[in-house]
Design brief:
mainly alpha; 12 helices
Length: 245
């Protein structure tokens, strides 16, 4: 576990250093990898819950459509996105701001959602279609940051937690024996201290942001830090995908 912790922290530090000193391209790459991670997470849920394994084109469409609460808020953020992007890296704002970028994001999502919904209905997986429609509605209606926060907590993160029930050995054994409640309680016990630490950290970062003289600059730094922490997480989940498929 010590070796894993060192490698995990090392990847995060390396990612932060690249985003800090390698210019906007490194930031764009990490953000793009995050979108891929979110999309693959939605696709994996589709596999796990329905057993449906669509062809490549539809699979890509499901992955993109499942990111509606990230893609659509980005397309709607306008000046706010440009300010935060400029705070993260002066060269980043021109790359991801402006009407062409926003229209491209919205158009890509709409096409992907249409393909995914039609294919899922034809394959008799209406819950997949409903899920995509709900995510799209959230991304279109709620304020951008609220939309992402609700989706991240109510979809992405909770599904990661559910997946841990099939990965952690003793939880998986309890699930296989039909003792789902015991498995969930065990996972809650295992996650209690890390969750408290994460919550305290999130509250501290929030306090630093709202009390800062220029909150936009602080948000830019915090996003860079969170993106750096996301990279080793993406590696772990990718490894799980490869190991459990």
């Amino acid at each position: 576990m010590l070796a894993i912790g060192v490698v995990y922290a090392g990847i995060a530090v390396a990612a932060w250093a690249l985003m800090e000193w390698a210019g906007p391209i490194a930031l764009v790459v990490v953000v793009a990898l995050s979108v891929v991670h979110f999309g693959l997470g939605e696709l994996e849920v589709c596999h796990q819950l329905t057993g449906w394994r669509p062809g490549l084109l539809v699979a890509v469409a499901v992955a993109i459509a499942g990111c509606g609460a990230l893609v659509l808020p980005l397309a709607r953020s306008g000046d706010q996105l440009e300010e935060v992007a400029a705070a993260m890296s002066p060269g980043l704002a021109p790359l991801i701001s402006g009407r062409p970028f926003e229209m491209s994001l919205a158009g890509i999502w709409l096409v992907a959602a249409a393909v995914a919904i039609i294919a899922s209905i034809r394959a008799a997986h209406r819950l997949v279609a409903l899920d995509i429609a709900l995510v799209g509605a959230l991304g279109l209606i709620a304020p951008p940051l609220v939309a992402f926060a609700v989706w991240f907590g109510g979809w992405h993160a909770i599904r990661h937690c559910a997946r841990m029930l099939t990965v952690e050995p003793e939880c998986a054994a309890l699930v296989r024996s039909g003792r789902d409640r015991s498995a969930v309680l065990r996972l809650i016990r295992l996650a209690a201290l890390p969750s408290v630490a994460a919550l305290i950290t999130a509250l501290a970062l929030g306090w630093i942001t709202v009390t800062a003289a220029d909150p936009t600059v602080v948000v830019g730094e915090i996003l860079r830090l969170l993106l750096a922490l996301t990279l080793p997480h993406m590696v772990v989940v990718w490894w799980l995908d490869r190991a459990t498929d």
